[in-house]
Fold each of these.
Amino acid sequence: MNKLDQLYKMTKIVADTGDIDAIKQHSPIDATTNPSLLFKAAQQTQYHDLVKSAIDYGHQGDTGEHRMQRTLDKLSVNFGVEILKTIPGRISTEVDSRLSFDTAGTVAKAEQLIGLYESEGIVRERILIKVAATWEGIKAAEHLEKTGIHCNLTLMFSLVQAVACAEAGITLISPFVGRIFDWYKKAEGVESYAAHEDPGVISVSNIYDYYKAFDYKTVVMGASFRNSGEILELAGCDLLTISPGLMEELKNTEGDVPRKLDAAQSKAKTIEAIDASEQSFRWMMNEDAMATEKLSEGIRNFTADTLKLEKYIDQLAGIKAA
């Protein structure tokens, strides 16, 4: 049995892409998107109708900034609706990263996205709203969860972020393995790590252990992988979101895949509780250079790709008008 099929037996596999054709090839349960993935997918010829539909929607009654916001929201939902036709589970759709420090703005945007999905006949239970795991983002997600809008907290690099999310009753978190790996690789001047010593793998394993030890309902979805070794070292995690390229690699590789994470073993561990109040959260983030830098960098990079997407949409809208 190939390694991907073995992973399916112990972990829910989620496709990390906006490429609908790639999702069809691997039959994941769920799928995740972000501004970077949407920008890449929107440029592919086979998805131009989804982009043009979003442009048409954006031009209905609004001008300027509001027009672009409507277009971006509709584009995210257009891709989400098409992806949901190919998977049995949920799609994660991301709130504009420029709202990462705006609790009220994040709540309003999430409600708009859910409204667009529901207008397409998609029930909210099939949607996860992705929000950056800033303090403001976590508070927004806490409010949304209480109103029946489920959330996926992204750009997560530390245990205190994870604990704050669990305390807030968030549905799912996405700790980023590969970006943690990138930071430590540069900081320590090394070429790589053995999978079991990978700082990103260790971070997700610690979060998983903490959640199971304290019996939190929030589930862990490892994300942002740089190689298949990181994925296999997290076999048994609640969910793993994997790019099509790495899924293909695992599908074409034979060999045993032992379970690495096990809830029963986590529950047996003695783990000290962490204070995730706002004061503690901000202090612990301040003391964690990696988490602080990668969270800020992630927000900047997602914003940069959103701006690229806006420019691309403007170009297409101009061509269409001409």
Amino acid sequence: MRGASIRFGYRITRQAELIAEGHTLHACVDDTGRVSRLPHAVRRLLGT
């Protein structure tokens, strides 16, 4: 987790065999589309 973004990693398995893996990157922006910090409530929910 960074100031304005968070990355989630994924691993999909079937019977202990890796089928696929990947990630998504999510960024926070304000009403004008400018990058903004992750809200404290979100950071707290994610355990940081």
Amino acid sequence: MRRPGVAHATPCRSVIRALLQVLCSSVHHSGVHVPDGFINAPVSAAAGLVAAGAVAVSLRGARRELDQRTAPLAGLVAAFVFAVQMLNFPVAAGTSGHLLGGALAAILVGPWTGVCCIAVVLLMQGLLFADGGLTALGVNITVMGVVTVAVAYALFRGLVLVLPRARRSVTAAAFVAALVSVPASAAAFTLLYAVGGTTDVPIGTVLTAMLGVHVLIGVGEAAITMLTVGAVLAVRPDLVYGARGLTAPLKLRVGGELVDARPAAGTAATAPASSGSPKKLWIGGVVTALVLAGVVSFYASASPDGLEKVAADQGIDAKAEEHAAAGSPLADYGVEGVETERLSGGLAGVIGVGVTLAAGTGVFWAARRRKTPADA
């Protein structure tokens, strides 16, 4: 018999070990989202309206996805995505990538809640850490949140419907969905740049460069998504939104006929309602996020990420503007006044995880409390 707690610890250690294997030892560097100045004001404003509408609709949809057990997990997913986005991994000579997180969030807590998770992460990054422009917030939410979630979850659902009903099918579908979502996001950015780019760079050149590097980044995104979804499936399959209803009931042959077997008490695969509180998973997830952001992030790749590299090589960043929050005490993922680089980055990461966890949990609890009979 498996001892209590062992199943919870092993998947978390596996995720951390796998993440460490794809990181290189270097100076801490954080991913750069679309900054101010890449896209002109009218298109940025239009993207802002699209993002605001998508978040509003997603909040309403999240009310149907969230319950007493999953609401705190949604905040945890936002905090975990924030932490893993600090881990830039090398993908090509002089280029790195980081998790976008749309596929991961959608599969774990649902597509509507997933959009809200990524929006919370991007808002915290923009306001506190000067990562991603404030006028470009709508662009970032649309490209990194709405597009990745929509593409990934649609593909994921299609795959799990045709694949065998098994956990391996869920993780395989998660891998493919995450892989495709990253170049889809890059294509969406290119489309916005084609309409409202502030520099004169041929669209074909931008698209080729963006897709080329982001396909490679997608492989890292897919690996992280698959490992994380697999880790949660191993301990609490009932809490993985994308795996709900996929486990066929156990059958026994009695007198030549197949009959439903009586589920064992506490068996997650056949009796998810009796699996108990997700408290242990929540605590393990918070600890993992804090370790990743506070310690492992120091060893992330220092190379520019995909968008930053393409922008510099193709001249897209010629009219980039200084971030409005550049004077923030947490700008560039460091704590102002702390001279030791390792300590400064680690503290910033821990603060970011805490703030994102609090903000996300608050938003999702509020959304759940506002649930009406029509939302059920």
Amino acid sequence: MTDSFRSDVRDAASFSEPPVSRLSAVLATVVALLGLLSLTWWGRAAEDRLVVYCAHDSVYSEEVLRDFERETGIPVEIRFDTEATKSLGLVSLLVAERDRPRCDVFWNNEVLGTMKLKEHGVLEPYTGTGYERIPQRYRDPDGYWTGFGARLRVSIVNTDRLAATDEVIAAAFDSGDLSRIAVATPLYGTTLTHYSVLWQQWGEERLKQWHADVHNRGIVEVKGNAVVKNLVAAGKCDLGWTDTDDFFLAVDDGAPVEMRPVRAPSGETICIPNSVAIVRRCRHRKLAERLVDYLLSEEVELRLAKSRSRQVPLGAVNESRLPEQVRQSRPYVAEGVDLNAIAEAHRECLDWLRSEYSE
């Protein structure tokens, strides 16, 4: 309360006037005090908001977070990433804020960036009610992050141009001319994860040779999986690499497309989940734990499965509640690459790609 405000109150209390006027002055003082208390409460409420940095598409994630807010009464402040920077923008921001964290919970749309945050000491471990639902290959062994709601790397095929079989897809990649095949620039997103898997399983030299070879044979490189999907759906390319979420958007638009899962050299699928983690020294640890438990629940995984992106649950769910297209993808989750095994390959591969594309 300011000195001038106290002075006004004293003057109002000592001023000689009729009883009605004196009562009005008291009421005015009470209203003013309540106003100050209200401002103080709202300021504290803003500080008590659970701050979530979210790299998953807002069209799917914001409704989930707002429902958490309504169901629990915990106010949530969301900061989304941009499509241009994918999840790397928020990862870099969290590293920069490490000593003075603003964020409580990080919802990433992939895993490798979250692993990087663990290495930089940005995260705190948590193994709550949802942790044990998730298979070991899709969670950090010490609880620093946990995966949920996954996408699969797939070959999207225009069936007006090619048959969607593994044999036909392999033959297309083995052909001399790759000008009808599209891939995304591997500096970002799930294409970077794909390259990291190849680096880890093939080794550095073989991946570099393969990368140079496919570019020499005219492969179409574009900015993002969505562009790959658009080119194939429109028949401008015969096939390409993308993710299941983009593939299903093409299906919903009535495009003549089918998909086959991309296989790593080991024969495993490349399954890329969302991940959730708690930021070290966050202001609202208990509230953060409640959100992590919520996101790792069966209900949220089912909800993401029923969204347009048809994300594949990692934990046990009631199969009868899954859309048929998602149910068909479930076996591929069990065949996925152990993402914990590619963290070092990811660092090395990204360093090379940055130098390769800076030239």
